[in-house]
Amino acid sequence: MVKKAGKEEHHLWKKRDSAGSGQKALNLVRIVSGLPNEKEAVYGALDKWTAWEAEFPLIATSKALRILGKRKHWIRVIQVAKWMLSKGQGMTMGTFDILLLAFDMDRRVEEAESLWNMILHTHTRSISKRLFSRMISLYCHHDLPDKIIEVFADMEELGVKPDEDTVRKVAHAFQKLGEEEKQKLVLKKYLTRWKYIHLKGERVRVKRDPWDE
């Protein structure tokens, strides 16, 4: 019997997310959590954290941002995200999303607007539905109906279809601005005539009430 030699495997890519990225993220969270609330102290510690890295620890930093977000440490989210962006790293929709959320929770509307304008000018065609919804939610939380309509106008211009929750926020904004006709048009255009409810353990499709429900 002749035993065939096994095929040699060749990997054309190298996995960058090492098993240690989770531990690195937790270490970063521990470092920033024990610092005074000063930009110089935070940035200095973060620079020290990356000093011996061959390449920027993007995955670990992104994980640390998610951990800080879950713990509702919004100021630290803002500091770490800004530091990462200052290094030219993490320019992704995920980073922008958690940073906008942190600005919202920390009531820093002007900074959120500044970031949003940058996103609009540099990532126009790649802005996700989630990011539009995030900005509309931020303006909703801070009772700025006119700003909601501005974001919605950009959304329509770029052909991004809003989800149901966003549609209702936009409709409510039109209502607050005294534009009931536009409110009805938005609901009619974007809400389907059917919705799904759970009845006796089953998912059932039912007809909606009129558009102004």
Automatic annotation (TrEMBL):
Keywords: Repeat. It comes from the Eukaryota. PPR repeats lie at residues 128-162. PANTHER family: OS01G0757700 PROTEIN (PTHR46782), OS07G0545900 PROTEIN (PTHR46782:SF2). This is Pentatricopeptide repeat-containing protein.
